[in-house]
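Q: What residues go here?
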């Protein structure tokens, strides 16, 4: 009889312990699932022209420090590729293009969020050569030198999708050397690839943005295209109409026009557009 009572007491204690553990776990689940206590980040997807990569990545922590509730996901590519992705319904909140025409196309289709578009930055086009070949006496001092026999390969952005490639063609057309240079062309998917071809010495020269040329010590700027040789290199920015977070998108655009953000752009060689 005593053994029977001990068994009952043991079972009672065990059952009580299990109930207490289950109750604690239930409370823990309730606490985790309580929306008032859960914290969630607002995620912004920002499609950015490849030439802005270094500057934007330096600005990112400055923005997130002031907006810890927002996490930014960047998509870097040529402006033409990004434009097509957005047209095809890619989930994008903000678009920064390296050419106004790409933004114009989206605006005409009603894809941009009304009254969010503005011009953000300006840039310049430059002719660059590999430092290694410069030391080997490859004579390229101006755009016309691209027609000489010693220059056999010239890196250019694909004109239809890469704004830098379009601007480069305008420069070549201005000097009336496009036909002689294009047959030497090695076309790239974006301006960063053009720069890489030059930096590695795989080509004799290339035409890129001034800001990209300044970011790599293995290339040398030998000529700068004057403003009248090509259309203005303007970087517009806008929020996308179908953005899931339009207010956060607007906040980001506003931040990128602040003195704090624009000081970073200037450090990378961009010209700030005054009077937004």
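A:
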């Amino acid at each position: 009889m005593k053994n029977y009572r001990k068994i009952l007491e043991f079972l009672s204690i065990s059952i009580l312990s299990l109930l207490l553990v289950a109750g604690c776990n239930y409370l823990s689940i309730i606490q985790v699932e309580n929306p008032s206590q859960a914290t969630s980040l607002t995620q912004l997807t920002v499609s950015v022209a490849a030439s802005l990569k270094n500057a934007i990545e330096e600005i990112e922590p400055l923005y997130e420090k002031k907006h810890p509730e927002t996490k930014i996901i960047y998509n870097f590519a040529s402006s033409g590729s990004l434009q097509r992705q957005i047209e095809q319904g890619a989930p994008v909140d903000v678009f920064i293009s390296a050419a106004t025409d790409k933004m114009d196309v989206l605006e005409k289709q009603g894809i941009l969020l009304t009254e969010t578009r503005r011009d953000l930055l300006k840039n310049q086009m430059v002719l660059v050569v590999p430092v290694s070949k410069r030391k080997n006496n490859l004579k390229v001092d101006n755009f016309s030198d691209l027609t000489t026999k010693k220059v056999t390969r010239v890196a250019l952005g694909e004109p239809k999708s890469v704004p830098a490639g379009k601007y480069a063609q305008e420069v070549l057309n201005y000097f009336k050397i496009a036909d002689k240079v294009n047959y030497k062309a090695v076309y790239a998917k974006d301006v960063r690839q053009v720069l890489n071809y030059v930096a590695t010495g795989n080509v004799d020269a290339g035409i890129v943005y001034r800001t990209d040329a300044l970011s790599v010590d293995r290339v040398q700027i030998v000529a700068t295209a004057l403003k009248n040789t090509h259309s203005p290199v303007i970087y517009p920015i806008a929020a996308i109409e179908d953005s899931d977070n339009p207010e956060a998108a607007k906040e980001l655009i506003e931040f990128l026009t602040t003195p704090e953000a624009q000081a970073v752009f200037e450090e990378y060689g961009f010209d700030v557009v005054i009077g937004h």
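A: Context that may help when evaluating the design: The chain has two domains: 42-122+234-272, 125-224. Residues 125-224 form a domain with the D-Maltodextrin-Binding Protein; domain 2 fold (CATH 3.40.190.10).
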